């Protein structure tokens, strides 16, 4: 049975909660020395945490670097990827990064390539795994990692369809029972300006939230031209971003950050329905797979609050990545730009302090939680915010109103029939009004 969606998220990461765990991070080695490691003390008494990276792209390489900088006694000991060249590029980049070479011990026998590489990484003796493959694989990799008793960093989003979301929630519940960490790559929850602003919103600074605007306007990204020796599966995997079954579409893969920030502002409450539109205006070629290049969705909450979500990836257009929150007594702007996060109300406020690197902070907190024996579990909000983004995609792909219950109960499973190098059909581009809810 799938886990039920709860109306409230007891794991909401408020600023007060975060500051408590930040104290642990600052203590670093002192925590480990005082409290000892729970599940990570090796038989020989070595308290070095061994890290395995599953997914060696740019984000995975960055995550590995941040993990190695998060703790004094940590080593990268295993790498896994679908492609040998990606693995080697990642390894060489990490070895050349200042201060990391002494923390890397990945001989050829712990370099794994292929669809089963994740299983080999998990069996290699690691304590912590970084899951940074294309999102489609997150549910199966998370399930295997928790079953193997590993602490986890899971990049966003955590799934591309509702069955994947259910799987992730079950795995995160199991992680709680095993006292394992599951830290999400929804890094805005670990960003100082957003934490301060959201806490002020929760404390009533702008009154009751009435409307939220989540914008993600940006240019186009990379494509990798098909090579003569690539099978269909090779080509789709190399260009995973452009295939809904692998990425979830870009409103799920990237815009999930801003949608999650809106859910956070609402106290981790989620809307009851959504309607939207989207399509392919400029990215029409076969090289762009089957995702859209724009989405616009209006979500509605039970109390009438609306979340207006707009995403676009087109060159030559104005860019804007921000969240605007309109309340009964004022407004808030959440932006990663310097001094871009502010509240305009009776008491004006602008975040002016130095903000820590949000990507680094999430790993600092992961390792502090492991060391202290107080593992962090971000599972509920990372799953529910992923479903929020999937719900929006369902609305734009079908052209129909999609309720939260419809999204939750969807039986659409985007998984391919098999994972192997060979032929695989290019999925059809969705047509609103024709494509059906499943």
Set down the secondary structure blueprint.
Elements: H1 15-27, H2 29-35, E1 49-54, H3 58-69, E2 74-81, H4 84-95, E3 111-113, H5 117-122, E4 128-131, H6 138-147, E5 151-154, H7 162-177, E6 182-184, H8 192-202, E7 209-218, H9 232-238, H10 244-247, H11 250-253, H12 256-265, E8 273-279, E9 294-300, E10 306-313, E11 320-327, E12 331-334, E13 342-344, E14 349-350, H13 358-372, H14 379-398, E15 402-403, H15 404-409
Parallel strand pairs: 1-2, 1-4, 2-3, 4-5, 5-6, 7-10
Antiparallel strand pairs: 7-11, 8-9, 8-15, 9-10, 11-12, 12-13, 13-14
In summary, what is this structure?
The protein has 15 helices and 15 strands. The chain has about 450 residues and is an alpha/beta fold.
Please, could you describe this protein's structure?
This protein is an alpha/beta fold and 438 residues long. The protein folds into 2 domains: 15-189 and 359-378, NAD(P)-binding Rossmann-like Domain (Rossmann fold, 3-Layer(aba) Sandwich); 192-353 and 386-409, Dihydrodipicolinate Reductase, domain 2, CATH 3.30.360. Helices cover 35% and strands 18% of the residues. It is built from 15 helices and 15 strands. The protein has helices spanning 15-27, 29-35, 58-69, 84-95, 117-122, 138-147, 162-177, 192-202, 232-238, 244-247, 250-253, 256-265, 358-372, 379-398, 404-409; strands spanning 49-54, 74-81, 111-113, 128-131, 151-154, 182-184, 209-218, 273-279, 294-300, 306-313, 320-327, 331-334, 342-344, 349-350, 402-403. The strands form 2 sheets. A 9-stranded mixed β-sheet has the order 14-13-12-11-7-10-9-8-15. Strands 3-2-1-4-5-6 form a 6-stranded parallel β-sheet, with helices on both faces. Helix 3 (58-69) crosses helix 13 (358-372) and helix 12 crosses helix 14 (379-398). The radius of gyration is 21 Å and the shape is globular. The protein starts with 14 loop residues before the first helix and ends in a 29-residue tail after the last helix. Mean pLDDT is 91; it is low at 1-44.
